[in-house]
Amino acid sequence: MARTFSTGTDCLHITSAVDIPFINGYRTISLWTYRSDDGDSNLGRSFQISSSSGFVIAVFNANGSRVKSQISYTSIPERFSNYPSLNVWHHWIWQWAMPATYDATAFVQVWVDGTQAHNGGSGGSGSPNANDWTSIHVGNTGGHTRSYDGRIAEFALWDRQLTTQQITTLANGRNPLDYKGDLVMYCPILGDDSPEPDLSGNGHDLVINGSIAQSGHPSVDPPTEIWGLPMGVS
């Protein structure tokens, strides 16, 4: 299942201090989206993660033709065109390399439906800190001013890069729990409960804000351990 976001204050969020490890210098986000429109001010956020020092990673729409990523308030957001079609489910992987102090080695890679769509400089500045991440918002900004317009499901966050094979299998419906090494958070967004449970075991449950209806989503496989097979940890 999934949640449908529209306008206003709709979001799923954690607004207290969030203990997100930042050991390996990477952030990888996996999620499924079904975009109906560009959202508030044509800048609807699919997610935003913020820190008390002002460091932000976020992904947002841009007037129907582009999607942008940002890794600090002072960045020039990285953009790429040929945004996937409306009213269709797409799987996304966002991978940021973020050194302890921002420099030219930082980059962002974007994968859509298992195919790499972007690989370039991340356009940012500042120094991410493992200990001062204060909020996670899915479907909006921290100030609830840029609501996503559409459906979002299967939000997962790792403190590492994923391999091309892992990305491809996730786009084909593999469960994020099969890649549990350095998995920080996994909320399927089932639409049944508030908070939406974090199945990674790290306690990062997402609380509902606004009115977010349950909706359908293409099926994702159960983790392989359910079938008596070893769970992937690579």
Describe the structure.
This protein is mainly beta and 234 residues long. Helix content is 3%, strand content 38%. The protein is built from 1 helix and 15 strands. It has one helix spanning 164-171; strands spanning 2-5, 11-14, 26-35, 45-51, 56-62, 66-70, 78-80, 89-97, 107-112, 115-121, 133-138, 150-158, 183-187, 207-209, 213-215. Strands 1, 3, 8, 9, 10, 12, 13 and 15 form an 8-stranded antiparallel sheet that branches. A 7-stranded antiparallel sheet has the order 7-6-5-4-11-2-14, with no helix packed on it. Strand 6 (66-70) and strand 7 (78-80) form a beta hairpin.
Highest CATH level, the class: Mainly Beta
Unreliable runs: 226-234
- What is the overall pLDDT average? 78
Helix content: under 10%
Structural class: mainly beta
> Treating each run of at least 4 consecutive H or I residues as one helix, how many helices?
1
- Global shape: globular
Q: Tell me the β content.
A: 35-45%
Count of β-strands:
15
Q: What is the end-to-end distance?
A: 27 Å
How would you classify the quaternary structure?
single chain
Number of domains: 1
Rg, alpha carbons: 16 Å
Order of helices and strands: EEEEEEEEEEEEHEEE
Query: What's the CATH architecture?
Result: Sandwich
What CATH calls the topology is Jelly Rolls
Q: Please summarize the sheet with the most strands.
A: 8 strands, antiparallel
List the helices and strands and how they pair.
Elements: E1 2-5, E2 11-14, E3 26-35, E4 45-51, E5 56-62, E6 66-70, E7 78-80, E8 89-97, E9 107-112, E10 115-121, E11 133-138, E12 150-158, H1 164-171, E13 183-187, E14 207-209, E15 213-215
Antiparallel strand pairs: 1-12, 1-15, 2-11, 2-14, 3-8, 3-12, 4-5, 4-11, 5-6, 6-7, 8-9, 9-10, 12-13
